[in-house]
Amino acid sequence: MSKLGGTWQLGDRTVHRMGYGAMQLAGPGVFGPPKNRDSALAVLREAVALGIDHIDTSDYYGPHVVNDLIREALAPYPEDLVLVTKLGAKRDDRGGWRAWDSPEALEQGLRDNLERLGLETIYAANMRIMGSQGPSEGSIARFVEPLVRLKEQGLLRHIGLSNVTQWQVEEARELTEVICVQNHYNLVHRADDMLIDWLAREGIAFVPFFPLGGFTPLQSDRLSAVARRLEATPMQVALAWLLQRSPNILLIPGTSSVAHLRENVAAAELDLDADALVELDILAG
């Protein structure tokens, strides 16, 4: 596999398929400040130094904490750096997640991201559909329309969706261009197999969240055995599998460790042979 997994056309930019998700730079539960601010800043700077040009964030990480770190570490931003945020949620005083998706809330959420990141326009925002453990059917037009207006105002260049079905993507595309879909997907959780293939045919990126299983990392004797044979870590194998799964998959694995970041990036150069793929396919839930 090529360095950083090759590239994909994300809107009007070409990005490397290995990106970085900044969520874990906040404190425990994605709430409050990091344990070590200097280490968090070092991870962001190392990501860019390694060639990563796609960073996923949100102002509700912390809240505000992660965007403040990104600005401190990376501004003025490299010209090729793509920052993608998420809207549709907020945090309560105890760190709980709450829907925040009225037109007024979505506009305020975007403006909060811009202010914290020090930007006049953000490259892309994913509309996160809250209220369920996974995608649920129903119209999302009322959520997409406010983002279209923000795009027309020049505050937002591109629109993505998160936690959605194919039907909802098709509905949104009647209102605007959709450049990416961000859903739960990994080696074990493969409910979106058909969606990924359809998006690839349509030229739309699929960005899996929890690519390594979520807050509890993927664990399997079979995965560990494949990793030992390939002289890699289980997490590197899980990331490599995603990159080989479909060319439209863009990865945003998160970490607060420079060493772990380098391991993730190295996974983009790991080739899984046919035997490994057969072994890993058995893990599908």
- The SS-based structural class is alpha/beta
Q: Provide the CATH top-level class.
A: Alpha Beta
Low-confidence stretches: none
Q: Name the CATH superfamily assignment.
A: NADP-dependent oxidoreductase domain
What count of helical segments does DSSP give? 10
Number of domains: 1
Helix content: 25-40%
Q: Mean pLDDT across all residues, rounded?
A: 96
- Along the chain, the helix and strand elements come as EEEHEHEEHEHEHEHEHHHH
Roughly how many Å is the radius of gyration?
18 Å
> How many DSSP E strands?
10
From the N-terminal CA to the C-terminal CA, the straight-line distance is 26 Å
Percent of sequence in beta strands? 15-25%
- CATH topology term: TIM Barrel
Largest sheet: 8 strands, mixed
Quickly give the CATH architecture.
Answer: Alpha-Beta Barrel
The best one-word shape is: globular
Topology:
Elements: E1 7-10, E2 13-16, E3 20-21, H1 37-49, E4 54-56, H2 65-74, E5 82-91, E6 97-100, H3 103-117, E7 122-128, H4 141-152, E8 156-162, H5 166-173, E9 180-182, H6 193-202, E10 205-206, H7 221-230, H8 234-245, H9 258-266, H10 274-281
Parallel strand pairs: 3-4, 4-5, 5-7, 7-8, 8-9, 9-10
Antiparallel strand pairs: 1-2, 5-6
